[in-house]
Amino acid sequence: MRLGMVGLGRMGGNMTIRLIRGGHEVVAFDRDPAAVEEAVVAGGEGASSLGELCGNLSSPKIVWLMLPAGDVTEATIRELGGTLSDGDVIVDGGNSDWRDSLRRAEQLAAGGIRLVDCGTSGGIWGLEAGYCLMVGGTHEAVALVEPAFLALAAQDGYAHVGTSGAGHFTKMVHNAIEYGMLAAYGEGFELLAGSTFALDLEQVAGVWRNGSVVRSWLLDLLHEALEKDPTLDRVDDWVDDSGEGRWALQAAMDEDVPAPITALALFARYASRQDVSFSAKVIAALRNEFGGHAIHNDGG
């Protein structure tokens, strides 16, 4: 099949290559001409604008977006809505808020354009290992794009999970679970690192990969990270979030679903960004006031 790919970053660039390897024709566009050139070298066709990309596709046109959630995706879908025609399909493979996907699908449908929301997991490893794709949209639109889904996905790693918004909702919950798993590994290895036993963290991570009930791909990756940097001294303790944890927590509150692990994991990421924790200062001051507990002061 022939389709357009907009956004050729770490995910979009690799997905473009995997699609080409799978026998598909890809017209590629990115604001960075160097990224477009890389896609051309891989066998794709380059475009210098969204308009040129759409002009090089045949109807029904399929345009896949791998862009940051929020304003960039919003503006791009708005522009495509004025360029594409009845029966064309936009695939949003980024981490958009599922509520935005619902709204966009309804708006585009007024002009006959179909939106497919595709939750995409696999990171930089997806090029070789394949991706996990959680797809939302009408059966007709999803069927039209399915050859691309099958080319991109790992074995049994693609599912049409429901109507518009369902793909991004499922990916949001997937990432909320990931937040909790990462936090658990982080706490566990901090406890190991702070013990009196001078444990070899790489060794522990390695043995846990074999036969342990906590073995996982994330543990494999942690083992690799510890091989490169046994004390993680070269890693800053500042943890970002891309939004899904916040949205999942809001969804949990909306549906009266208790989600304390997601909440704690999200707030732990916020705490990592503080050079100085005012909350800790308040706690230390109160402990001193009511119990006479010492306040540590480095003279700053």
Mean model confidence by pLDDT:
93
Could you give the count of β-strands? 8
Rg on CA atoms, Å? 23 Å
Largest sheet: 8 strands, mixed
Quick overview:
The chain is built from 13 helices and eight strands. It is an alpha/beta fold.
Overview of the molecule:
Strand 1, helix 1 (10-21) and strand 2 (25-29) form a beta-alpha-beta unit. The protein is of the alpha/beta class. Helix 8 packs across helix 11 (244-254) and helix 11 runs antiparallel to helix 12 (260-272). Helices cover 51% and strands 15% of the residues. The chain contains 13 helices and eight strands. An eight-stranded mixed β-sheet has the order 3-2-1-4-5-6-7-8, with helices on both faces. The mean pLDDT is 93.
How are the SSEs ordered, and which strands pair?
Layout: E1 2-6, H1 10-21, E2 25-29, H2 33-41, E3 45-46, H3 50-55, E4 62-65, H4 71-81, E5 89-92, H5 98-109, E6 114-121, H6 126-129, E7 131-136, H7 139-152, E8 153-162, H8 166-193, H9 201-208, H10 217-228, H11 244-254, H12 260-272, H13 278-291
Parallel strand pairs: 1-2, 1-4, 2-3, 4-5, 5-6, 7-8
Antiparallel strand pairs: 6-7
Helix pairs in contact: 8-11, 8-12, 9-10, 11-12
